[in-house]
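INFO  loader      accepted 1 record
INFO  loader      residues=289
INFO  predictor   begin
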Amino acid sequence: MELRQLRYFIKSAELSNFTEAARTLFISESTLSQQIKQLEIELDTLLFERVRRRVSLTEAGEMFLPYARKTVADSEHAVQRLRDLRNLHTGTLKIGVTFSLGSVLTNSLEKFSQTYPDIKLNIIYRTATELTGLLKTHQVDFVLSYELLHDDDQIESMRLFDSALSVIVHQHHPLAALKRIPLSYINNYPLVLPSVGMNARIILDSVLQASHITLNPQVELNEVNILLQMVRTKHWVTVLSKATIHGDNEMKAIPIQEKGTEMHAALLWLKDGYQKNATREFIRMLMQD
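INFO  predictor   done
INFO  writer      dumping tokens
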């Protein structure tokens, strides 16, 4: 069994397609297919069901996948430990970021890339729930998100700053003059909200339920950049974390009157997992910013 076979297996499982997996891995489909077949022969079990152009994991494949991911991650961590011992500033740093905190990274990304130009940065945007899944499967080194709503014995966190849920409008919108606003009042304006499952929406729905308020959004989006573009037209109103518009002088964050709007930005990483030097250095820069 070879590490490359495990990498081919993992990517094929993620994409459910040998052709797409081969393209992503920059190898021929025949090479990928042969290596997967060789792995199945060595394990004496079928890992994939092949149906026309699609493939899906068998029960054995589903069971084998987390072990394959852990084996590949452990090998990468071992190599990184050796690099760290030799003080080599190379490799890849994979950072998971929730949609609404992307702007917080800007200064640190520039500073880090200038200081360590040979370290590749791979930034992955997902919902908070998806990011914890990526963390547990070793697909990111750490996550910039919000504190978990429920304790997880596999994940450690460190609070960075507080950022209240706010009504977000353009600075020239009629609501921008208000010092504080009840949520029921924004029903009087065209409303676009983050999709169900996004961190801000989870907090918002909790506040609405506790306050017995119903909002009637005309649009729901899972892409914060497009959502903010809509708000920039001065027509739409939305509800997001105040940190979402960090550094954006066109936007105004209006505090919400209802209680329970507190959100806590945090760094998340696996308990007892190895933190490479690049991870510690990026976190140090982020804390300074």
